[in-house]
Amino acid sequence: MTTPQITIHDVLTGEIITRDFNAAELAQLEADKAQAIKDAAAIKARQAARQAVLDKLGLTADEISALFG
Amino acid sequence: MALQTFTAGQVLTAAQMTTLQTNAYNQTVSTKTASYVLVAADVGTRIVMNSASSTTITVNTSLFSAGDTLFLQNIGAGVCTVTAGTATVSSAGPLAIPQYGNGTLYFTSASAAIYFPTAVTIPTVSSALTYIAGGSISNTTSVNNCFSATYLNYKMVLNNLVSGTGAAVNIRMRASGSDNTSSVYSYINNGQNTATGGTLNLGVGQNLSLFQLGYSNQYANGMNLSIDFFAPFAATNTHYGPGVFWNDEINYAGIIGGVHKSTTSFDGFTIYPTSSTLTGTYKIYGYANS
């Protein structure tokens, strides 16, 4: 697997470097990925809860939008 | 040649005639290297100030008559100011003559003159928005040293951001070459579909480790955003917003904003996709403090 890279622009010197992620950045990337999965799951759960309410009311999402804008 | 009164029977010499002619074509020059008080003999001549320090030309009464004219100029680095002594000096422009400036002093009576400046000091025009830096975004891209004590607030313009399907585009604040990943970022990211009117809550959260800008979902035209950053370099909370974004392909326009709750002084930022790739450009501008 290719190591992710970071490009760093230094405004003071005008220098632009591209290098592989270091250990800390790789660890943060993994943490971010894990968080993204959790966030996506949370969004899915919210959508499911919303759909459950809609089903209970017998309304579609468009009808709810028409009601509440 | 200073003005003089010729009397009946007086012989006008060739030398005097030549001097008069010279004065008619090239005014008699009188160079002063220090502040000067005009005298009657200066009428019709050119007073040239040449001093590295500030000087004055003082105008007094009862020396000149209505219609008398003097030409004043300054070739020195020090500003020369036409100063009313006992006479009145009026002017529509500045009385200060900058280096290589000049003007005409015209007397309307023995006690009043008008100064007509032909060169004025041009005020320095300062821009409200100053370009600081810009460049290409290629996947994870950090920008160091774009925030400083020079400006309190900044504008960030992001053009044509294209990330992979389902990959959010995020920003983290940065200090001394390291991203700040503390869980003190809070933001909202809300959009609305311009075709259907449907709302889209792209993201909202408190005490996270990033600001989320939105999703470009790989469409070629990508997202365009304009965001203000408030006090990123100051030792106070960093706020951002109201960011306005537009996603060309999915017809969403929206607004974003948030806060980084810490007193950390930031000198840069990192923009990155949650996954996959990210391309686009950034530009950073500083708002003038006054």
Number of strands of chain A: 2
Strand order of the largest sheet of chain A: 1-2
Count of helical segments of chain B?
Answer: 1
Percent in helix of chain A: 55-70%
How does the overall form of chain A come out from the CA principal axes? elongated
**Could you say how many structural domains of chain A there are in total?**
1
Structural class of chain A: alpha+beta
Order of helices and strands of chain A: EEHH
Q: If helices are DSSP runs of H or I spanning 4 or more residues, what is the number of helices of chain A? A: 2
Please state the overall shape of chain B, judged from the principal axes of the Cα atoms: rod-shaped
Structure description:
The complex is a heterodimer of chains A (69) and B (290). Chain A contains two helices and two strands; from the N terminus they run ββαα. By secondary structure, chain A is an alpha+beta fold. The N and C termini of chain A lie far apart (47 Å). Chain B folds into two domains: 28-117, Jelly Rolls (Sandwich); 129-287, Jelly Rolls, CATH 2.60.120. Chain B has one helix at 14-25; strands at 29-32, 36-37, 46-49, 55-59, 69-74, 80-84, 88-90, 96-97, 101-107, 112-117, 129-138, 140-144, 153-163, 168-175, 178-179, 185-193, 199-208, 211-215, 223-230, 238-247, 252-260, 268-273, 278-287. In chain B, the strands form four sheets. Chain B has an eight-stranded antiparallel β-sheet with strand order 11-23-13-19-20-21-16-17, with no helix packed on it. A six-stranded mixed β-sheet of chain B has the order 1-3-5-9-10-7, with no helix packed on it. In chain B, β9 (101-107) and β10 form a beta hairpin. The radius of gyration of chain B is 34 Å and the shape is rod-shaped. The two termini of chain B are 52 Å apart. The model of chain B has no long low-confidence stretch (mean pLDDT 87).
